[in-house]
Amino acid sequence: MRRRKTIMHNAFIIARKELKSYLNSVSTYIVFVLFLMLSGWFFSNLMFKSGKAELRQLFDVLHLVYIFFIPALTMGMIAKEKADQTFELLATMPIKLKSIVWGKWLAALELLVIILMFTLVHLLTIMIIGENLDYGSILCGYLGLIFVGAVYCAIGIFASALQSNQILAFIIGFVICLFFYAIQFLMPLFPNALANVFQYLSMDYHLENFLKGIIDTRDIIYMGSLVIGFMLLAEFSLRMNNRLQER
Fold first, then answer.
1. Quick one: which of 176, 168, 175 has its CA closest to 78?
2. What angle is formed at CA 54 by the lines to CA 214 and CA 187, rounded to 5 degrees?
3. Whether 51 contacts 44, CB under 8 Å
4. What CA–CA distance (Å, rounded) separates 160 from 41?
């Protein structure tokens, strides 16, 4: 128990350091601005076309934007340090590799939550012009986006751990995130016997419950399992890379 607390304590320290570093980077704000411009453009277009003051359609669009945004946000978290050969120095310090990996993930998730907070301006807009808003569904929608973002952040950290080239890390993260997103469109191609299995793998299938205002423990378990799975893969990849370098 004490060892676990130490690992988490170190992870939070690394997350704080990473967050501060990213908030001092111009590239981070460029990504933020692009994200907000896209979300604002889609929100205004969807609202005026549908004539409905709601966030449901925006949440669906944000899920799509995640596929580009999160790999771009996470691609350099480990890859850049590997390229600059500073990760090896960090790994030799008296800090568990698990703390480093989870600290990077926490920093990415915190950045994602910060950017989502800026989209609350859209909520303020529909509060002013809309009527009979379902605040429970809106809250669950944001919660669902955070859970989905947590999964994609773990995928991004895994991709960044595989490569020292940030562009390749982005491509790998993008392809894996796209797989979980695109399953919903490939369902007609699967035989009926496998349809339920692939439907369960679809990220959109689990996000849909949150958008309806439903919090299902099965969705949380699924997303939590993916986070842990990809984080373990990231840690395993870094360990294997260190062993190969030692040889």
1. 168
2. 55
3. no
4. 30
What does the alpha-carbon distance between residue 188 and residue 190 come to, in Å, rounded to a whole number? Answer: 6
CB 11 within 8 A of CB 106: yes
Share the mean pLDDT of the chain.
Answer: 83
Read off the pLDDT of residues 96-138 as tens digits, 9 standing for 90 and up: 778 888 999 999 999 999 989 888 888 888 877 766 777 888 8
Q: Which amino acid is present at 5?
A: K
Contact yes or no for 81/218 (Cβ under 8 A): no
- The SS3 of residue 247 is coil
Contact between 91 and 3 under an 8 Å Cβ cutoff? The reply is no
How would residue 4 be classed by pLDDT, with cut points 50, 70 and 90? low
Cβ–Cβ under 8 Å, residues 77 and 156: yes
Rounded to whole angstroms, the Cα distance separating 134 from 127 reads 10
**What tokens appear for 10 in the block?**
């170190």
Rg (CA), the chain: 19
Token couple for 45: 């277009």
Cα–Cα distance for residue pair 188/167, rounded to 1 Å: 33
Q: How many other C-beta atoms are found inside a 10 Å radius of the C-beta of residue 34?
A: 14
What is the distance between the alpha carbons of residues 137 and 211, in angstroms, rounded to a whole number?
6
Backbone phi, then psi, for 163, in 5-degree steps? Answer: -130, 155
> In the prediction, which pLDDT does 142 show?
93
- pTM flag (> 0.90): no
Beta-carbon contacts of 114 under 8 Å, excluding residues fewer than 6 positions away, are none
